[in-house]
């Protein structure tokens, strides 16, 4: 049995698909399972023991344009897959699925180009994204599948160096997002930092990509700034060692969900839990403004508040997050 997953979406989407990988392995223990994704997606999936191969589809580099598309399509056709599963709902992924020539092609019934799928999976908006993905394998074994990430010894050694002077309680702060309206106001993050820096038992770590290096965040003694300084699996290892992570509705939520001991404090502004991307981890709490008629304003957020008041974020005060952190730090974990 040769199985291919095609998913070239954002980092968070790829992380959320790891329970599907495990369910596939449980269902087809002897199958070859290949995952086609972007180079960034491939980097977060490395070391996954349930995958046989990872294929990098570099849409902006080697496989750019029509010529690059046909190059990757030809490669997939030669692999003679028995089953192709495509959670990505965009036309290019659907067309690529068709060109594999696989006898079984599964995709969502809402996908662009859904006519290429001979097995359509209902896209149930009421379910968490992980549950949607697990529906690609109809077998219901009653098991809860968790998000899984696998930092290697190399990543662990690197993080040992980065966190060599950290204290007992690590609090990770992830202030970034691709969309402006999904960002909790920077002055709120900074206020939270000013309050937490007074605690002698806490190490504050700021994480994010190179884009977040532009954020004006004060760095006090003892803080660690890792923005733009880690790979995705190194970031996962940093988060694994944290006691708490405070994050916008972005990929760190899903990365942190791979580690059940990490307390996730997730801030949702323009988006809502009902869209299916709330933390999969049970050790989490979502902060959001209830009863605001304009929420959600979009699936992903935007560059500005359509109503010009931005209440969905401004009304989530730093004191609310601080109180939750203090409560957690004062509790004794078994």
Low-pLDDT ranges: none
The strand count comes to: 12
Query: Which band does the percent of strand residues land in?
Result: 15-25%
Helix content: 25-40%
Structural class: alpha/beta
Please give the count of helices: 12
Would you tell me the overall average pLDDT? 94
Choose one word for the global shape.
globular
Give the assembly state of these chains. Answer: single chain
Order of helices and strands: EHHEHEHEHEEHHEHEEHEHEEHH
Q: What is the CA-CA span between the terminal residues?
A: 44 Å
User: What's the story with the biggest beta sheet?
Assistant: 6 strands, parallel
Largest sheet: spatial strand order: 3-2-1-4-5-6
Rg calc? 21 Å
Structure described in brief:
It contains 12 helices and 12 strands. By secondary structure, it is α/β, with parallel strands linked by helices. Strand 7, helix 8 (186-196) and strand 8 form a beta-alpha-beta unit.
How would you sum up this structure, described in words?
The protein is of the alpha/beta class and 334 residues long. The protein is 31% helix and 16% strand. The protein has a six-stranded parallel β-sheet with strand order 3-2-1-4-5-6, sandwiched between helices. A six-stranded parallel β-sheet has the order 9-8-7-10-11-12. Helix 7 (153-162) crosses helix 9 and helix 8 runs parallel beside helix 12 (318-330). The longest helix has 14 residues, at 65-78.
